[in-house]
Amino acid sequence: MGKAQDYNASSIKVLEGLEAVRVRPGMYIGSTSTRGLNHLIYEIVDNSVDEHLAGYCDSIHVTLERDGSCTVEDNGRGIPIDMHEKGVSAERVVFTTLHAGGKFDNKSYAASGGLHGVGSSVVNALSSRLTVHVRKDGFVYEDRYARGVPVQKLDKGLLPVVGRAKGTGTTINFLPDDEIFEKTRFKSDDIKSRLHETAYLNPQLSIVFTDAREGSEEEVTFHEPDGIRGFVRDLNKSDETVTDIVYYTGSVGKITVEVAFQYIRDFREEVMGFCNNIYNSEGGTHITGFKQAFTTIINNYARELGVLKDKDVNFTGADVRNGMTAVISIKHPDPRFEGQTKTKLDNQDAAKAAAQVTSEEAVHYFDRNLEQLKAVIECAERAAKIRKSEARAKTNMLVRPRFSFDSNGKLSNCESKDAKKCEIFIVEGDSAGGSAKMARNRMYQAILPIRGKILNVEKASMDKVLANAEIKAMINAFGCGFSEGYGQDFDITKLRYDKIIIMADADVDGAHISTLLLTLFYRFMPELIYEGHVYVAMPPLYKVIPQKKGEEGEYLYDDAALLKFRKHYKGNFTLQRYKGLGEMDPQQLWETTLNPATRRLRQIQIDDGRMASEMTGLLMGTDVAPRREYIHTHAADAEIDA
Ligand code: TTJ
User: Fold this and answer.
1) Is 143 a catalytic residue?
2) Are 246 and 261 in contact (CB under 8 A)?
3) Confidence (pTM)
4) Which of 48, 224, 227, 559 is the most exposed, having the fewest neighbouring CB atoms within 10 Å of its CB?
5) Nearest atom (ligand 1) to Cα of 44
């Protein structure tokens, strides 16, 4: 049997492997939503980043093409195209074998890995077409696939030459399969922020992002020679900073640890962990090692300086990180991950390395920069003070009877106690609240009207936040308590409603109310958002009523829908414009906003630190324009919730 036939035999297995990807795409890329779609790009780009880490590539171009496809091009050595032991070009093995990436030469990938680089065959399986061009030895070689199946004829198992080339590199073009993905339009904001992050972590790399799609043309270059220092600088760019950016690096055995941090005046903590340049959204051992060492260091200094007296208890970890923005980036030869999404670093030696490097280098720095140390300790003192007043405020809250607001008629609770089926609508304004109470399904839908603008919690002290009647009402209704960030006093298992639905007008005031509420949840009950319990109701903007008898009216949720209706509807119709929720009668409110079969909800998602920091910046900043833009762009994601 010839080699080519051997390959034919093994190619059947190959196709079976890729078929598994098409049957359960979610297992390989997380989901088939826009997130999963964008993930295809990262899977491909990570291969070029690996080539950069190996020392052979300093430029990557990512282009969203007009036809909906994506092109990734690098100036690395090019995917190996020579004969593989399977009797076919190595490139074909890369794109048709599950879990075998371009990692042929293990030595050059000493610090790569994690979970990336193995995904090119997955992308291939989920693309209706994928083209590979490799530039090498003065030639361009080509291969082509459709839904993972090779469609290019090979010459004795090798790729045909389709042109001449200067230099070396790889170009991949792929079109996501519309049989697999719910939507096939890439989302440029998410892609840009992820590419930007990659640029911070690889200071020698340039990434050029081009959106060539009609109407959204743009080109941005991400090059961040200051590395994670620049990352911290930019994360804090709209904050008042109180320290310099502290940077240190060091190695323990084969593990390299790199840390940059800076304190801001605001009451906020953001510590992001990366392993081998991949973001760990669930954190892990590198983070805990850093935190543990840092807490010890600051407490030791505070005692030495007499800020903490013998009788005083230590600052907590959260105290010493009050106001801290930090990026911890480690390189590990053999990373292991755990957690729900396999993004939590699990190597114990990473904790040791992060702690050891921090103990040595942070102390080295603070010994020589006492004024910086003092600024850090002041942040910790402020946090400790607030923590104590929080404890006082909580004791005060506990002595008041729960649901006292029930009696003054605010919350209209639902009858069911089955949290999985229950929803609570937070409704702006008494008149909309009144209609909602009449319209709702009282078995499963609770209504909590809130009046006017709730407190902006970003600027307020804890006592003030807790004194606010609207906020108290919400905390009591949800049933899980509250705490700053991920505190122990918040218990998501006690949540009394599966969906918390913000119902506000589709105007600037409504957007502002939603923003304030999201800020509140984000700061005091972030798990509500992380676990996907928070939604924003999307009331329609218009109703069109055809004049022809027998035809039903239709609600339209945005201007695009109106435009489409005008284009396609032949005949006369009346256009009703809804100005606000308060103007709808209960029946209309039920049809448009409450009825699970017909309403539209937008689920609020902050699924990783990248988005979270974006949210903090956008939602907590004082700039109104970008905030409105955020709400605007994300409103386009609304999906029918049925
Ligand atoms: C592997 O070792 C021999 C020399 O080439 C190395 C390699 O794989 N280089 C490489 C792969 N550069 N770029 C890629 C690559 C780029 C993209 C856009 C997509 C994929 C799957 C690989």
Assistant:
1) no
2) yes
3) 0.64
4) 559
5) 19
